[in-house]
Design brief:
Chain lengths: ~210, ~210
Amino acid sequence: MNFVDNSQLRSHNAIDRLTALFSRLPGLGKKSAGRLVYHILETNPSYARALGEELLSFHETIKRCKNCGAFTESDPCIICADPDREPYICVVERAQDVPVIEDSREFQGRFHVLGGVIAPLDGIHPENLSIAELHARVRREEIQEVILAMNPTVEGDTTALYIQKVLKDTGITITRLASGLPVGGDLEYTDRLTLSRSFRGRVRMN
Amino acid sequence: MNFVDNSQLRSHNAIDRLTALFSRLPGLGKKSAGRLVYHILETNPSYARALGEELLSFHETIKRCKNCGAFTESDPCIICADPDREPYICVVERAQDVPVIEDSREFQGRFHVLGGVIAPLDGIHPENLSIAELHARVRREEIQEVILAMNPTVEGDTTALYIQKVLKDTGITITRLASGLPVGGDLEYTDRLTLSRSFRGRVRMN
């Protein structure tokens, strides 16, 4: 038997290329990427075309709103352009947090995307976040309250404290989303920090 | 507070469309599809373009080899066109099984993709598989041995028996891949059927 290099791989070039591209996505290893590729091969070609066309135009279609930083197809985004939105600003870490809060229908105000949280070890300092822009918006848009909705992590809390200091001179109300036991959660499986927060933030019932 | 329908969703149209397309892939729910979409948004646009272009041309680039049924960019495929391949045919269920065996470097012969296994309950009958083509190839390509590499399932075994009968008149050697304990496997966690096979197929050591 005379093994003639791995010529099969050459014939599978497009399959390999697509597998390599898919495996760069988070949570997709080479195996699962390969499974997707073969699934696509066995699916109606219209699917690959639709996905391909969507991806080709994706970055041209989706921009960042210059006012709030959310992902949008129009600039300013529909939320910033809506005069009926209440004069509250909900501050979130990342643009993908905006639809999460919108879908909850809990909040009728505006948004401000920080672009991260202060994390000096990762090289993210206050000046890398859109905090100055937030300060300017509070004045310009006559905001009544800033709701800090960063994740309840050490970095999120640090960033919240920092923003609170920066906004002090505006004199407006600054709040932070409540942190505690998640609905449907189980006390037995709750970590100590969450439990501690739910104690400190306990609500009077009578 | 006056809720003005979910206008945010409209502004996120392309994000929603891409999420919906990704969530049609196996193993990707709406949540994980969304995570991929936001990852792509935050990645260099060249990535989305590369993935999009690959997908647009994918079904035009990848064909089925008319001789063996494997996925290929040229027809006949590089394996079928290679005169140095040994006159053995390895019969597999699906086209994606071919690169798995090629990568193992265990086999220097040709392939034949059945396109499935006999499963009457799923509406797959012998005439839906490329068994007649296999029979023709055995004669035409002067094959010496047919190695049946269908999965060791009830359907795989049924299909192997059926092919064995169909090829009887050719008089060639027909073999089936060994089934038994996987390398690195643990007897304690081996199912009864696999254990039974590994007993029946036990190999003499002296």
